[in-house]
Design brief:
By secondary structure, the chain is of the alpha+beta class. It has helices at residues 4-11, 15-47, 70-75, 107-113, 121-129, 138-144, 193-199, 220-230, 243-254, 257-286, 288-296, 301-330, 335-338, 345-371, 375-380; strands at residues 53-58, 66-67, 80-86, 91-92, 101-105, 133-137, 151-156, 168-177, 188-192, 206-207, 209-214, 238-242. The protein has 15 helices and 12 strands. The strands form 3 sheets. Strands 4-7-8-6-9-5 form a 6-stranded mixed beta sheet. Strands 3-11-1-12 form a 4-stranded antiparallel beta sheet, with helices on both faces. The chain has a two-stranded antiparallel ribbon with strand order 2-10. This is ABC transporter permease.
Length: 381
């Protein structure tokens, strides 16, 4: 602890250079925190998937529909407990930026298949009995200031009404659902499939995909194979996956987020390695007379090595913590997009470890030179 003032003084010997280096590391770890945070959010979405649910899609693509008649056939297969279905509605509220994750469903099937969604019985009954009724997540309702009884217009980017050729759909909020285990899931909206199917101008009598709850999670693979086998060689063949596999394939349609983030961060830290390394070497080169004096006063070779390494470590770790702290402050802004409120602790720990690795990589060469410093030659120079 007694060497902290000395290390701090040596570190700020050139204030402008140190400040610029600190800023460059801070920005790099701000980027690291945001990108890795987003990556972790996608991974958490996948890991939260239910182990006893299967998703049945069209074998060609998720954008291809499946016949509504498949539901009773799937229910009759061994190992199946219950079946629900969803379809992609793709609407926005007032402005295209205000995307809403809305799905036409059959309430008596959808909510038993998703017991994590908690809805009061009277509100669920209201949805079943209200043609244009909708149940929205508590977080989504809070975001737009919606409340039960409100009439909301949504513009679908896909579905057109048969009656007037209009893509504007009106709904009445009859209930709010909550997910106490994961508040980030309170961002969706569910409305009556019958209202949707009767009103749309095309693809009537079809659904987007089926949600299959299996009786025994250990038999999920066998049930999935049986479903696909049952519809083999039919006009609409199926592809059945676990909910986790479905989430992974859905994310890959956006892109390999993990690979993209890895490439970006590799490029950033590769450039940072040279920038910080040259700065530390230049700083140690300028400190040669001071280091020689310290050796004259009795500092050992090992202590000299540690002194220079600690300088590099202090600079990198402090800047990294500032960058990660700023990322943590900015991360709640992504809640509307990712449903994530705080930067995962694992990302912060990973960032600190990365900063320590960066410090050692950039400081080991100048620290080794400081260790091997010859007093007479150093003072002469």
């Amino acid at each position: 602890m007694k060497f902290i003032p000395l290390i701090w003084a040596m570190l700020w010997r050139k204030k402008v250079r140190t400040s610029l280096t600190l800023l460059s590391i801070l920005i790099a770890f701000l980027l690291f925190g945001m990108l890795q945070g987003v990556n972790s959010a996608f991974k958490e979405t996948i890991e939260r998937s239910n182990v006893n649910r299967l998703v049945v899609t069209n074998r060609i693509s998720i954008t291809e529909s499946l016949p509504y008649a498949y539901m009773q056939q799937i229910e009759a297969l061994p190992g199946v407990e219950r079946v629900s279905h969803e379809s992609w509605f793709g609407p926005y509220y007032q402005d295209p930026k205000n995307f809403v994750a809305a799905f036409p469903v059959e309430p008596e099937r959808e909510f038993p298949a998703h017991p994590e969604y908690q809805v009061p019985k009277d509100q669920l009954a209201a949805l079943e009995n209200t043609r244009d009724g909708a149940i929205v997540g508590a977080d989504l309702a809070k975001k737009y200031g919606w409340k039960i009884g409100d009439h909301i217009p949504l513009h679908s980017t896909i579905w057109v009404k048969a009656a007037d050729g209009n893509s504007d759909w009106d709904f009445t909020i009859v209930g709010l659902y909550q997910d106490p285990a994961d508040r980030s899931r309170e961002d969706a909206m569910f409305f009556n499939y019958k209202y949707f199917d009767e009103a749309r101008s095309f693809a009537k009598g079809t659904v987007g995909w089926y949600i299959v709850v299996v009786k025994d999670p250990s038999q999920s693979a066998q049930v999935a194979q049986e479903i696909d086998r049952h519809f083999a060689n039919s006009p609409d063949e199926t592809k059945t996956q676990t909910e986790k596999e479905f989430q992974q394939s859905f994310m890959k349609q956006i892109g390999d987020i993990n690979l993209i983030v890895t490439y970006i961060l590799f490029a950033v830290f590769f450039a940072l390695l040279f920038a910080v390394g040259s700065t530390v070497m230049q700083a140690v080169r300028e400190q040669v007379p001071e280091l020689a004096v310290l050796k004259t006063l009795g500092f050992s070779d090992t202590r000299m090595l540690v002194l220079v390494l600690v300088q590099s470590l202090t600079l990198c770790v402090v800047a990294a913590l500032l960058g990660l702290g700023l990322a943590d402050l900015l991360f709640p802004a992504l809640r509307s997009t990712l449903g994530v409120v705080t930067l995962p602790a694992a990302v912060i720990v990973e960032g600190v470890l990365m900063s320590a690795l960066l410090a050692v990589a950039t400081g080991i060469v100048p620290a080794w030179r400081a260790k091997r410093l010859v007093i007479v030659e150093a003072l002469r120079s």
